[in-house]
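Design job #97: recover the sequence.
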């Protein structure tokens, strides 16, 4: 959840915005924190986090780690993922990244700025999640990685820009994200909010991680539809 929160917070801003060093913690998931070591533009932070999670999931290696982000031969900065509570342990490993069941969720004020924060989304926004009748079971890694991939896509768009239909394929498993504009399209900020909420919803659902369809509504008007699928065209 921590990396999902980190990526969504960065995605709400401009892709070229420069972010000062900061420690990111998620309420309720405060056992882990993410620290950025130097001021970096959003695109490097987003790409760095995405590449880091791809590596960690592919190698099933989850521990304190310090990632060094590089563009060609230039060191851009670092992203550190570590346990929040002080404890005796070995120093974190270091790596380098080359940056070349149906339910209703209410992720929940109005969009006016060119870039929106997580807390400025309209309270009338609602996310409706449904299961496929013949839905496949997915792993936790597959769901999180496709949501990271969707966030990477949305981060490159102005948050107030109306969403255009798009699709993404995850590098882990044959899992895809499909997003379709429907009627008055929602801004990308709402897609970011949706993708940051879906893993939390499935994590808490007794039926677990699985293929899903979902509708995004604002003031009860359908603005977009989406799906997370595996091995489907």
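Job complete. Output follows.
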């Amino acid at each position: 959840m921590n990396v999902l929160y980190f990526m969504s917070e960065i995605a709400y801003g401009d892709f070229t915005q420069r972010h000062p060093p900061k420690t990111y913690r998620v309420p309720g998931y405060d056992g882990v924190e993410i620290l950025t070591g130097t001021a970096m533009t959003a695109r490097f932070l987003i790409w760095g986090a995405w590449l880091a999670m791809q590596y960690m999931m592919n190698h099933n290696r989850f521990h304190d780690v310090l990632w060094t982000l590089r563009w060609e031969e230039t060191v851009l900065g670092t992203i550190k993922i570590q346990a929040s509570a002080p404890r005796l342990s070995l120093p974190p490993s270091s790596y380098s990244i080359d940056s070349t069941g149906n339910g209703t969720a209410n992720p929940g004020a109005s969009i006016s700025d060119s870039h929106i924060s997580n807390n400025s989304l309209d309270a009338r926004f609602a996310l409706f999640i449904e299961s496929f009748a013949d839905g496949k079971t997915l792993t936790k890694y597959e769901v999180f990685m496709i949501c990271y991939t969707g966030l990477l896509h949305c981060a490159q768009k102005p948050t107030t820009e109306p969403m255009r239909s798009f699709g993404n394929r995850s590098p882990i498993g044959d899992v895809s994200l499909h997003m379709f504009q429907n009627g008055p399209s929602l801004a990308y900020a709402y897609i970011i909010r949706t993708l940051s909420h879906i893993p939390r919803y499935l994590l808490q659902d007794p039926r677990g991680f699985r293929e899903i369809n979902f509708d995004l509504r604002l003031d009860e008007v359908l603005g977009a539809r989406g799906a997370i699928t595996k091995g489907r065209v």
